[in-house]
């Protein structure tokens, strides 16, 4: 179907960003980032199950030929849907007691280390790098939420 073709194009494009050797493989550690970049929001357990399904014989890499059909199915079935915009806003507002519309990176890092799923320091650094407005050195969450919840089909 056209929907499958569009999904496959998006998946290939996202995959190739991380295919540093240009051999249709990616490091297994990049899989979650690829999935997130496609507008999906799985839990760590979901990611582990996904990787178990697509990883090449526990060799630490994933081949596009295995990744593509599994990820296409995920997209078509909307397996890891995004969180609604209002829920994201409420979550940030709980942390931003003064409702300033922004927060310090260290505030979010402190919270993330004490609540929810655990992140490695590398994952935390990657997340903060992606979220922090470089000019202001703040997480402007209202702007961020509108970027995250743009129509993911475009």
From TrEMBL:
It comes from the Eukaryota. GO terms for molecular function: calcium ion binding. Gene3D superfamilies: EF-hand. Residues 6-41, 83-118 form the EF-hand domain. This is Cell growth regulator with EF-hand domain 1.
């Amino acid at each position: 179907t056209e929907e499958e073709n569009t999904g496959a194009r998006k998946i290939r494009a996202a995959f190739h960003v991380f295919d540093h050797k240009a051999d249709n493989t990616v490091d297994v550690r990049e899989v979650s980032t690829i999935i997130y970049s496609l507008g999906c929001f799985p839990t760590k357990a979901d990611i582990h199950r996904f990787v178990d399904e697509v990883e090449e014989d526990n060799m630490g890499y994933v081949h596009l030929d295995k990744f593509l059909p599994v990820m296409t199915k995920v997209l078509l079935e909307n397996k890891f849907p995004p969180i609604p915009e209002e829920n994201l806003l409420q979550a940030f507002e709980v942390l931003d007691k003064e409702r300033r519309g922004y927060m310090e990176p260290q505030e979010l890092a402190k919270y993330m280390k004490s609540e929810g799923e655990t992140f490695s320091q590398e994952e935390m650094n990657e997340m903060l790098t992606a979220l922090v407005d470089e000019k202001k050195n703040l997480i402007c969450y209202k702007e961020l939420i509108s970027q995250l919840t743009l129509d993911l089909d475009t």
